[in-house]
Recover the amino acids of this structure.
């Protein structure tokens, strides 16, 4: 009887190991197959992702239920468990990128956090490839924490990553040690750039605030039948060479993607679904022009009736006759560079005069004005885009950054662009323009009430005024209304700021927003905000 039980146990153990190997190999095949999926479009990848989630869920539960057998018969290592958890975290992160649903960031955080809490990668690795797995895990975890604004976790993870990079360098003398040192430098620069204003509580502890859309930050509006459009597709493009970045996010891209997302909420369900609380978006870091147009075409294709495509471009300028002649409208003056750093340094003359394949011209946007388009250009050559028209009759709004900044802001480029900062957090933008780098929480909260008051009053006045009907088409969407009102706040602040009296320091809009019609009631709020923060001497008296 004893021998039979032993035989049965061995048979069962072999079955468990065999089933684990099957699930493990299947999960790796599905995970590797994700690279072959088209990165654009909504339908092609959904079934594949569902299969990958199903297999990884079964694999994770299976190793939990049979850990003792797998430890004894399969010699399951803790780093292998960590790799499974890491890949599940990656699945959730990529699902967030595909759907724009911020709740999946929380799921990714849970799995990445479990790896750290349970020490799956805590053992000193004797193989360089396992050490690289550990370093990549830390880099991915930091990205998720940044997106969730868990800055305490970010600081802890950066310290641990620095220790592991030192260990990796000392033990293996790898060829990629400089690359990992650069990763650490980029993370630290990015974190510094992300906090233009430090906010402290009563104990002196630095606080972290989030700026995604929530019911508390949604500007009020008296809706009308004309407010019929809603934001469906977004392209966020970042190509600025000198700007702080980490992974494939510049600080401008990072701020804009948060601005166009709702605050994540706790969700007990771990099963991916296709809720579209947020508009779908693509994040493109330094794409070549061919790829940019492919993604733009895909987003345009997926915009349904009543939908809006938003294109945000943050990049360096290309000036001059980019095609060598001025005969083709929309291509004669330059545009936004789609260049790598080596291109800029090695061929400055070609940057001015040539490389049409590496420049986004205003004429490249024209085909996409067949559907409602909201265009934001954060570039010194943005004025070239203000003459884009809508010959097909679809609503079109264009926001363009100022062609130049006052001297005191020109050295602040790595920390992000001013227009984008105002669209992301108007109060932070106000503080940067007035030289405020830290505030106590009570001062910040009171200042925020002035900003909220401005937004509510501006929304009311904007609807009541005879502003261009095109803006009313977009004004019913929470995200687009937020952008319009924050642009008005930005322009209202600059109107009375003593350092911004040159027209070249002001952003532009097309159709032009007539600030004059609504600025008088709002100017008092701007001056009251300045007085509250003791910077009123930097502003003209509106009277």
């Amino acid at each position: 009887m004893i021998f039979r039980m032993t035989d049965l146990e061995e048979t069962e153990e072999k079955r468990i190991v065999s089933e684990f190997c099957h699930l493990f190999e299947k999960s790796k095949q599905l995970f590797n197959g994700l690279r072959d999926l088209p990165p654009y479009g909504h339908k092609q990848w959904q079934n594949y992702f569902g299969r990958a989630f199903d297999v990884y869920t079964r694999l994770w539960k299976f190793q939990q239920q049979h850990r003792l057998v797998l430890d004894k018969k399969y010699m399951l290592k803790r780093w292998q468990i960590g790799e499974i958890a890491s890949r599940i975290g990656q699945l959730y992160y990529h699902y967030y990128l595909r759907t724009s649903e911020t709740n999946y960031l929380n799921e990714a955080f849970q799995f990445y956090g479990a790896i750290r809490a349970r020490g799956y990668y805590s053992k000193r690795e004797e193989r360089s490839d396992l050490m690289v797995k550990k370093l990549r895990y830390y880099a991915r975890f930091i990205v998720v924490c940044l997106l969730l604004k868990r800055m305490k976790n970010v600081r802890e993870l950066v310290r641990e990553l620095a220790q592991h990079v030192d260990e990796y360098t000392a033990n293996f003398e790898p060829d990629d040690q400089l690359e990992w040192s650069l990763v650490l430098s980029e993370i630290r620069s990015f974190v510094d750039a992300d906090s233009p204003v430090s906010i402290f509580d009563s104990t002196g502890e630095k606080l972290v605030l989030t700026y995604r859309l929530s019911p508390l930050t949604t500007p009020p509006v008296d809706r009308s039948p004309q407010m019929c459009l809603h934001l469906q597709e977004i392209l966020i493009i970042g190509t600025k060479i000198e700007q702080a970045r980490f992974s494939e996010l510049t600080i401008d891209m990072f701020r804009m993607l948060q601005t166009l997302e709702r605050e994540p909420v706790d969700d007990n369900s771990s099963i991916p679904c296709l809720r579209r609380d947020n508009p779908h978006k693509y994040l493109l870091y330094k794409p070549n022009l061919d790829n940019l147009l492919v993604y733009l075409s895909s987003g345009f294709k997926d915009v349904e009736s009543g939908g809006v495509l938003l294109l945000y471009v943050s990049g360096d300028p290309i000036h001059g006759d980019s095609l060598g002649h001025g005969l083709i409208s929309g291509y004669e003056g330059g545009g936004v560079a789609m260049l790598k750093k080596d291109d800029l340094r090695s061929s400055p003359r070609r940057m001015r005069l040539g490389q049409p394949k590496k420049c986004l011209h205003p004429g490249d946007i024209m085909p996409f004005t067949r559907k409602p388009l909201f265009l934001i250009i954060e570039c010194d050559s943005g004025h070239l885009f203000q003459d884009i028209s809508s010959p097909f009759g679809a609503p079109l709004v264009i926001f363009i950054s100022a062609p130049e900044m006052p001297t005191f802001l020109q050295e602040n480029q790595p920390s992000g662009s001013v227009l984008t900062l105002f669209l992301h957090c108007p109060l932070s933008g106000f503080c940067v323009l007035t030289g405020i780098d830290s505030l106590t929480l009570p001062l910040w909260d009171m200042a925020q009430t002035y900003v909220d008051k401005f937004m509510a009053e501006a929304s009311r006045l904007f609807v009541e005024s005879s502003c261009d009907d095109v803006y009313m088409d977009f004004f019913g969407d929470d995200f687009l209304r937020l952008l319009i009102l924050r642009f008005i706040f930005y322009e209202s602040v600059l109107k009375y700021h003593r350092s911004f009296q040159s027209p070249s320091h002001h952003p532009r809009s097309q159709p032009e927003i007539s600030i004059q019609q609504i600025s008088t009631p709002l100017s008092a709020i701007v001056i009251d905000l300045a007085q509250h923060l003791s910077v009123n001497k930097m502003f003209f008296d509106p009277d």
Summary: Confidence is low (pLDDT under 50) at residues 268-276, 344-354. The longest helix spans residues 2-33. The first strand starts at residue 198 and ends at 200. The CA atoms of residues 131 and 168 lie 7 Å apart.
